[in-house]
Amino acid sequence: MPRKAGIWTRADRPGWWATIGGRQIHLGLDHDAALKQFHRLKAADRTPAPSPSLRVAVLVDRYLLEAKAKVKPLTYDRYLQFLQYWVNHAGRLMIGRLEATHLEAWLARNPAWNTSTQHLAVGIVRGWARWCMRHRYLAANPFLDVARPKMLRRRPPEPGALEAAMAAILSPEFKGFAVVLYETGCRPGEIRSLEAKAIDWGRSTAIVDGKTGPRLVGLTPWALAVLETWAEIHPEGPLLRNSRGDPWSASAIQVQMKRASIRAGKGRCCPYSFRHAFWARAVKSGVDSVQIAKQLGHTDTRMLIKVYAEVDHQMMREAVAKIQSDGGKG
Q1: Which domains does the chain have, with CATH numbers?
Q2: Distance (Å, rounded) from C-alpha 269 to C-alpha 169?
Q3: Rounded distance, CA 316 to CA 166, Å?
Q4: What is the pLDDT of residues 54-99, one digit of tens each?
Q5: Tag placement on the chain: N or C end, fewer CB within 10 Å?
Q6: CA 290/CA 184 separation, integer angstroms
Q7: Which residue(s) pair with 165 in the sheet?
Q8: Could you tell me where the DSSP H helices lie in the chain?
Q9: pLDDT for the residue numbered 226
């Protein structure tokens, strides 16, 4: 249920809290002092009370309209996808009647979602609820205490599985896309939007639109050759497109990789397998971890350890094999 007006505690942070003007405010550690502070802030807050009579579907539409102008197209598409599912479930409800059980029931109605998908879904709906609070449609976030499942760590492909899947790709258009992913380690979304004007052909580099802004990446001769071929066909706009001349969608990339993996029969590979493979090849080649992080678009090397810790059992066996034991003799 939405929090009642008053002060309350949080399980994850110390002290007393209250919601004032749609924002959570920390009031201090002492109960009596926090209560006095709450009444002072509440008296000073003259913002009109939120309207509980608007339907969830209406506020989702308003949120998406604002989000479209602020977030990247791929992010917006993800918001649109999951919030449409949310509207199908709770769209007719009045905003003031939302409870944590509505979100929990929504997750229960989608048992096919793995924990990573559930993590994403809960995050998107919580983000929408925070927007409702900021705009005074909600007095408090009813989903604050809903457990958010953990993301599944992407497991690296088995040795040789990715190369086998690449060999099994039938579409020449997607084969070129896969080569650029394999040779750069870039995120699929960064290559989807890459244009010829962003490539410095003489220096073998490109500027990609990364998660946190533009990023300089290096290009191998193989990647350059593929990009040069497609630059002649698509001198403007996204370079790498499907057979219909449209930029690759995220779902189409997933489908192509799934089909190629099945044909190869060497184990499952996904679009992000190329990043794992690039990391493993770079480490084996002795590339500095800072340079690897820059190429992959991570802010520091800690992300390399966090994301790519489970990479290559063969690599670890080779590392251990280099340590010569004297059998305990002095």
Answers
A1: 8-44 (no CATH), 56-134 (1.10.150), 161-319 (1.10.443.10)
A2: 12
A3: 25
A4: 999 999 999 999 999 888 887 898 999 999 999 999 999 999 899 9
A5: C
A6: 15
A7: none
A8: 31-44, 56-68, 73-90, 100-108, 115-134, 161-167, 172-184, 188-192, 221-233, 250-264, 273-284, 289-296, 302-307, 313-321
A9: 95
